[in-house]
Amino acid sequence: MSRRERNPVVPDDVAGLALRLWHERRWRDRHFQRYPDLFADPAWDLLLDLLIAESEGRTVSTTAACLASGVAASTALRYVHLLESQGLVKRVPDRRDARRVLVQLSSTGRREMIAYLRLIQAQR
Q: SUPFAM superfamilies, per this entry (predicted)?
């Protein structure tokens, strides 16, 4: 993952909530590590990770996106394809390394994630 300038399209408070949710999921996974099949939600983990990466100005390779999903690579790739077919993410060639493909939120995916996280904020 490479660094870019911070993305002002993702508001700081929304990025902070996304990061908090991501950490809470990791804490839960560690706490319930003896029960690995209870809490799999790869699509949500992918969307959270992509929003956080975008807010931090990082690019995410397909490999890194698969790792972020918390499931096997073949399953993660199915979710990347599903999210792409729903218009929530897009895959783009890496301009720095033609061998790599990057995964990022689409404008629809970004808008939906921000709207959902705003909804959560309003309930707190």
A: Winged helix' DNA-binding domain
Give the contacts of 56 (CB within 8 A, at least 6 positions apart).
3, 6, 7, 15
Asked if 65 and 50 count as a contact pair (C-beta separation under 8 A), the reply is yes
Give the C-alpha separation, 76 to 64, whole Å. 10
Nearest to 104 by CA among 35, 25, 4: 4
pTM to 2 decimal places: 0.86
Q: Quick one: fold of 12-123?
A: Arc Repressor Mutant, subunit A (1.10.10)
Domain boundaries of the chain, sorted by first residue: 12-123
Give CA–CA dist 11/31, Å, rounded: 30
Burial of 106 (0-12, 13-18, 19+ CB in 10 A): middle
pLDDT at 81: 96
In this predicted structure, the answer to whether residue 2 has a pLDDT above a threshold of 60 is: no
